């Protein structure tokens, strides 16, 4: 448990090897050169009063509260903007200084409501504290003159209020929005007494460019910008540090509570992935934990047409075990399987795959990474020898050229995007490779040097064209290649990409991107200094997803952009623990640590630890499980924390597979779409109720700490353990830390990991005897596989072709305020920003079809059709349309196809040939689906006793 108020040093830490010694009020102190007097004073134990300074922002020097006297210097400089000097003698608390400070404070207070006792910031207000520190006892100017006390409160944002009557115009909010978030939504309007904070064009926060990251709220020293939960429930009084459960950035938060009630989430300054920043989801969208839709009691039913019946945990677990045993007795050992969750902890994912390999006696375990980053695993393992990104997030601070391919960081990975934008504002160059004009292409103070708006499905053609330029124009980093790469493979690759057919000019017909742009981008990446590639699902979710990942790795090796800060190949992972669920052996062919089940030595480790014999044959992948269900050989599944009926492609096929099974067990927070096909529902715990670890996109193992007890009475790991015990395989963990101890015992990359060490700070795997502090940057002296392997990446067009019936290409993605299938975010106030999925269509395509902005349209493919509203925008190119998949009433995945990556079966979500036509409203199936879902969610009334 931690305190609420953290020490604020006033100004940022400055790194310097040169130390400067000075005295502050007679105390000698040594600090790095460039440090402010304010920070040095605090190092000496002396807190100088301040208002406009805070250690997350650059010094500004506007409030005049931090004045000091320096021997031999005239005047009273601001200690926040004045750097230390050798031998300096500083005085911080003379009568003259206190008088000056009181005078300034008097002016602030004369235009400030004196409602401290009833103010929501009471007890945690820097203005109140500072007034006390300077000894303010009277306000001579009275309160009758002009003031801002009647300025109306802007409560338009669902999560925080803006009460200008309390504003002291310190500009911390404006600077936080610029420096930390990089959105530039706020300004100080007017001058002198009339100056005030304005959002956007002096409009309500909700309609401005504000993205609700909350950095301004956190920076505000008064109650002007304040969380509504604090206004309603009062100030928190203790906190627990934990990790966000939304995206793969892995931001650390202080969950601040009063009693056992969460009041707010405050990004933790010491969080190594987020350094005190957050996005709207992590900071504000946690209310789903208390949403009335949440299921608190286990439930069972005989048939999916029956209503649910609430039962005890014992009865529900007994039913799961008896059903799975019955199915295995009738259909064989391989007739049941699991899907582990990338939303649950490492310990929980580990336990679910262990359940399969022990109690079930098969390898039928898969995870949602199948449908997102499995090509990353395959591609990076093949080329580098490890299935993970090469850098830490901080590495971007040293990048000179940043390539963003098939990713939309400002929406998908917003806190990392803020970091990236900061580096871009400092001068790094940006290359965006994406069919859509994502925000990064042009936003305040950021503009891409190149945007290559390639046609969906042509990533490999583009990567080969970029490689062609690098090889044929002599831009290879020969030294790196000669010393670090497999030379035979390099020769084959270089000969291949040099072929005229791979030139930007030849590929222009395929990618539709002008060759000159491709040539310019390739030269910039190869010669612009440190080149870092960040990529996302726009690379992996293709029939050539694994090929494209290897194409990216080839580019990085050819240019020597690996093995140091500022460079690398960086997959931006989607879900909070998708890296961890893969690391934990969730795939049917791999035991923890990405070791193939066919390797006898690896099996032997687990056979000894678990006391069972492990099948050397890989088990079924998710699509194979569904195929086998339709064929009648796969009859039971335990799905923890995934909603495959909404998230997986070709919905008809998924639901046919689920409907064919005899026992579908869903373990989740809500009756999701998959639960429509379930026979047992086991209520899950939210991240606030979990103890364990998540692993983020930079391989960082973050602690997740229990903020409140599981509201259902059982942690998710305890449920899995109970199923295993009921099936006859004993598991006896007393705490998730014991599960991590087992992971460390059996997995070399985790050998040095345990909860006690993680409680001193997160680490990045590998963490073992060779790297006891973890590994921020991989492949420094050599690749994990020895020599880096360049792979020939021939472009093969997808079988999904446009034609007269389906002339447009649909690509999908997500937006900032919603998350994945929306199960959590749809149950928060985030719906004000995105209440429905929209179809982005180019004005020309819209006009050809008689479609106007806001019209209902029918979206049809070879797989199915759905209806949604159109958003006419030139953000997409002609011929390309785009939508999100956050809402089950739209179910964008009814139109996506069964095509998938050749190596991993990762679905080709990003390329579907479709037609769009005007429509009157939702399709018939959407209405009947609503009815079916409502019927399926009926819970039998409990008879009165
Ligand atoms: S809103 Fe808060 S942070 Fe912004 S200027 Fe006013 S007092 Fe300062
Ligand atoms: S919430 Fe974030 S984006 Fe909005 S004004 Fe504040 S700092 Fe800017
Ligand atoms: S960036 Fe990701 S991890 Fe960070 S607060 Fe937002 S959703 Fe959570
Ligand atoms: S804190 Fe230094 S001028 Fe405001």
List its salient traits.
single chain, 945 residues, alpha/beta, 7-stranded mixed beta sheet, 6-stranded mixed beta barrel, 29 helices, globular, binds iron/sulfur cluster, binds FE2/S2 (inorganic) cluster
For the biggest β-sheet, the strand order reads 13-12-27-26-25-14-15
- The DSSP helix count reads 29
Biggest beta sheet attributes? 7 strands, mixed
Radius of gyration: 29 Å
Uncertain parts: none
User: How far is it from the N-terminal to the C-terminal residue, by CA?
Assistant: 42 Å
Assign a percent range to the helix content. 25-40%
* Shape, principal axes of CA atoms: globular
Mean pLDDT: 93
How would you characterize the overall build of this protein?
By secondary structure, the protein is an alpha/beta fold. Helix content is 29%, strand content 16%. It has 29 helices and 36 strands. The strands form ten sheets. It has a seven-stranded mixed β-sheet with strand order 13-12-27-26-25-14-15, sandwiched between helices. A hairpin with a 2-residue loop joins strand 10 and strand 11. Helix 9 (346-360) runs parallel beside helix 25 and helix 22 packs across helix 24. The protein is globular and about 90 Å long. The model has no long low-confidence stretch (mean pLDDT 93). It binds iron/sulfur cluster (SF4) (3 copies) and FE2/S2 (inorganic) cluster. One iron/sulfur cluster binds at residues 167-173, 197, 219-222, 224-225.
Please render the helix and strand layout as text:
Elements: E1 19-24, E2 27-32, H1 37-43, E3 69-70, E4 89-91, H2 95-110, H3 126-133, E5 160-162, H4 172-181, E6 186-189, E7 196-199, H5 215-219, E8 225-227, H6 228-233, E9 238-243, E10 252-258, E11 261-267, H7 280-284, E12 299-300, E13 309-310, H8 313-331, E14 336-340, H9 346-360, E15 365-367, H10 374-383, E16 401-405, H11 409-412, H12 414-425, E17 429-433, E18 442-443, E19 446-447, E20 450-452, H13 459-472, H14 478-484, H15 487-498, H16 504-511, H17 515-527, E21 531-535, H18 537-540, H19 545-558, E22 568-571, H20 578-583, E23 590-591, E24 595-596, H21 600-610, H22 622-631, E25 636-640, H23 644-647, H24 651-660, E26 663-668, E27 680-683, E28 692-695, E29 700-704, H25 716-727, H26 736-746, H27 755-758, E30 763-764, E31 808-813, E32 838-841, H28 843-848, E33 856-861, E34 865-872, E35 880-884, E36 912-918, H29 924-936
Helix pairs in contact: 8-25, 9-25, 9-26, 10-19, 13-16, 13-17, 13-19, 16-17, 22-24
């Amino acid at each position: 448990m931690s305190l609420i108020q953290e020490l604020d040093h006033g100004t940022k830490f400055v790194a310097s090897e040169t130390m400067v010694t000075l005295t502050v009020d007679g105390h000698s102190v040594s600090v790095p050169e460039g440090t402010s007097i304010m920070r040095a004073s605090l190092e000496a134990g002396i807190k100088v009063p301040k208002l406009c300074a805070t250690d997350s922002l650059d010094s500004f020097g506007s409030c005049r509260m931090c004045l000091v006297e320096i021997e031999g210097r005239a005047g009273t400089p601001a200690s926040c903007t004045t750097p230390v000097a050798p031998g300096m003698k500083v005085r911080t608390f003379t009568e003259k200084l206190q008088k000056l400070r009181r005078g300034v404070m008097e002016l602030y207070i004369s235009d400030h409501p004196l409602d401290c006792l009833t103010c929501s910031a009471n007890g945690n207000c820097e203005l109140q504290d500072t007034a006390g520190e300077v000894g303010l006892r009277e306000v001579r100017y009275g309160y009758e003159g002009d003031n801002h006390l009647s300025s109306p409160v802007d409560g338009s944002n669902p999560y925080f209020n803006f009460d200008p009557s309390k504003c002291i115009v310190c500009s911390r909010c404006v600077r936080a929005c610029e420096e930390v978030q990089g959105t530039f939504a706020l300004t100080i309007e007017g001058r002198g007494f009339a100056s005030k904070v304005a959002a956007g064009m002096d409009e309500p926060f909700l309609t401005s460019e504000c993205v609700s990251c909350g950095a301004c709220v956190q920076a505000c020293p008064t109650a002007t910008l304040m969380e509504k939960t604090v206004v309603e429930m009062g100030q928190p009084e203790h906190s627990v540090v934990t990790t966000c459960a939304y995206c793969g950035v892995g931001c650390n938060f202080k969950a601040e509570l009063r009693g056992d009630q969460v009041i707010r989430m405050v990004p933790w300054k010491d969080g190594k992935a987020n350094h005190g920043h957050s996005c709207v989801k992590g900071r504000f969208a946690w209310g789903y934990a208390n949403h009335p839709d949440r299921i608190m009691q286990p439930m069972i039913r005989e048939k999916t047409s029956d209503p649910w019946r609430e039962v005890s945990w014992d009865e529900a677990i007994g039913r799961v075990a008896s059903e799975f045993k019955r199915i295995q007795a009738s259909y064989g050992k391989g007739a049941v399987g699991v899907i582990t969750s990338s939303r649950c902890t490492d310990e929980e994912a580990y336990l679910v795959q262990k359940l399969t390999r022990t109690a079930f006696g098969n390898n039928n375990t898969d995870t949602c990474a199948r449908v997102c980053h499995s090509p990353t695993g395959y591609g990076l393992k093949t080329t580098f020898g490890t299935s993970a990104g090469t850098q830490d997030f901080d590495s971007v601070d040293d990048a000179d050229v940043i390539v963003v391919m098939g990713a939309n960081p400002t929406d998908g990975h917003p806190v990392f995007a803020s970091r990236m934008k900061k580096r871009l504002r400092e001068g790094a160059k940006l290359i965006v490779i994406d069919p859509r004009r994502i925000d990064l292409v042009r936003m305040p103070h950021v503009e891409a040097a190149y945007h290559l708006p390639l046609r969906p499905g042509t990533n490999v053609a583009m990567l080969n064209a970029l490689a062609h330029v690098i090889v044929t124009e002599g831009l290879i980093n020969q030294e790196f290649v000669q010393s670090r790469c497999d030379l035979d493979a390099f020769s084959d690759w270089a000969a291949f990409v040099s072929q005229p057919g791979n030139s930007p000019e030849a590929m222009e017909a395929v990618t539709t991107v002008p060759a000159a742009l491709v040539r310019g981008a390739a030269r910039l990446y190869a010669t612009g200094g440190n080149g870092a590639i960040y990529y996302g699902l726009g690379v992996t979710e293709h029939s050539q997803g694994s090929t494209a990942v290897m194409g990216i790795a080839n580019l990085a090796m050819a240019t020597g952009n690996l093995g140091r800060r500022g460079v690398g190949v960086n997959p931006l992972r989607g879900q909070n623990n998708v890296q961890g669920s893969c690391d934990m052996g969730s795939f049917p062919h791999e035991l923890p640590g990405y070791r193939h089940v066919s390797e006898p030595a690896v099996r032997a480790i687990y056979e000894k630890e678990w006391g069972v014999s492990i099948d050397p044959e890989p088990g079924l992948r998710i699509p194979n499980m569904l195929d086998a269900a339709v064929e009648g050989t796969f009859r039971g599944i335990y799905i923890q924390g995934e909603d495959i009926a909404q998230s997986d492609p070709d919905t008809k096929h998924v639901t046919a597979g689920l409907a064919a099974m005899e026992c579908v067990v869903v373990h989740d927070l809500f009756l999701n779409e998959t639960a429509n096909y379930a026979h047992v529902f086991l209520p899950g715990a939210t991240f606030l109720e979990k103890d364990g670890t998540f692993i983020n996109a930079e391989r960082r193992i973050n602690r997740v700490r229990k903020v409140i007890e599981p509201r259902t009475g059982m942690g998710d790991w305890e449920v899995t353990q109970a199923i295993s015990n009921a099936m006859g395989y004993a598991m006896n963990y007393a705490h998730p830390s014991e599960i991590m101890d087992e992971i460390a015992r059996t997995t070399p990359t985790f050998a040095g990991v345990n909860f006690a060490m993680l409680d001193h700070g997160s680490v990045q795997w590998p963490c073992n005897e060779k790297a006891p502090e973890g590994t921020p940057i991989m492949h420094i002296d050599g690749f994990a596989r020895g020599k880096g392997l360049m792979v020939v990446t021939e472009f093969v067009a997808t079988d999904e072709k446009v034609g007269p019936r389906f002339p447009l290409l649909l690509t999908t993605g997500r937006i900032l305020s919603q998350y994945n299938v929306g199960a959590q975010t749809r149950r928060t106030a985030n719906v004000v920003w995105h209440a429905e999925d929209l179809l982005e269509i180019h004005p020309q395509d819209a006009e050809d079809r008689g479609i106007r902005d806001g019209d209902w349209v029918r979206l049809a493919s070879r797989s199915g059709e759905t209806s949604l509203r159109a958003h006419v925008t030139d953000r997409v190119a002609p011929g390309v349309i785009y939508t999100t998949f956050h809402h089950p009433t739209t179910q964008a995945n009814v139109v996506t196809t069964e095509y998938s990556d050749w190596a991993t079966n990762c679905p080709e979500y990003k390329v579907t040939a479709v037609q769009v036509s005007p429509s009157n409203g939702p399709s018939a199936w959407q209405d009947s689906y609503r009815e079916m879902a409502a019927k399926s969610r009926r819970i039998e009334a409990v008879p009165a006793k």
